[in-house]
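REQUEST ID: PR-0412
SUBMITTED BY: lab tech R.K.
PRIORITY: routine
TASK: structure prediction, single protein chain
INPUT:
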Amino acid sequence: MRKTNLLIRQAACFENLDLKATRGLDKSLIRDLFTCRWIGEHRHGILTGATGTGKTWIACALGNQAAREGFSVLYTRLSRLLDDIATARLGSGVGALMRRLARVDLLILDDGMMSELTATQRRDLMEIVDDRHGSIILASQIPLSSWHRAIGDSTYSEAILDRIVHVAYRIELQGDSLRKPACGGTAPSGSAIDQPASHLGETTLK
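STATUS: complete
OUTPUT:
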């Protein structure tokens, strides 16, 4: 079956990733993730760290590498996805949307767990996770230890995180924001994991 590349507007790639950067990156793990074997094994990825440390850039670089390898990829912010589902539910498109999400090989959910989910959003997130046979990347500036509180209900949080965390590779980025200019200089523009979120091409689900 032909795969479709749904993440085509972000130029992030492994070749531009600066593994010398002091970000707490495990070089061996990063190189292994870029083989995309973990997607074939239906495992997940969790990227955490302070704002500006490169979570989105790395997530999109992994997505673009997956697309190169023939996997279908979809990038969206978690809040946008939940809004899209709520909008689809007002009409008759929610079933088709959920089926589309379930078919994607790699679903990248950015800016996750930024605020406490509503009861409806918890159920929607549970359905997304439970229906999927593919992989998920969750990127968040909120520490993993606080995700239970963000999901908001102990039963749902345990069920959702149990399906993700135990089969996920985890990258916790460290350091200051890469968007900050160096002392006496200007912000870098050519090195890896320094691209601001405004440069990203986000897919809106229809």
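NOTES: Strands lie at 44-48, 73-77, 106-110, 135-140, 168-172.
REVIEWED BY: pending
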